[in-house]
Amino acid sequence: MAALNLRFTEEELDALRKRAEAEGRSMQSFAHDAVMAAINEHSRRFDEAADHVLRVSEELNRRLA
User: Membrane-spanning regions, if any (predicted)?
Assistant: First the structure.
């Protein structure tokens, strides 16, 4: 498995530690899941935007074809 080193300020690291502890999880697990959630959210928003553009331009695309 590949690894990635991230740099945090002391304040950020403290906040990460507190959130992970509050959920009863390791900092690594919490950070991993947060990154994956951000990736998935970005993909979801991109797909939503693409669907919207296709819907609103459907008639124009039909006429141009």
Answer: none
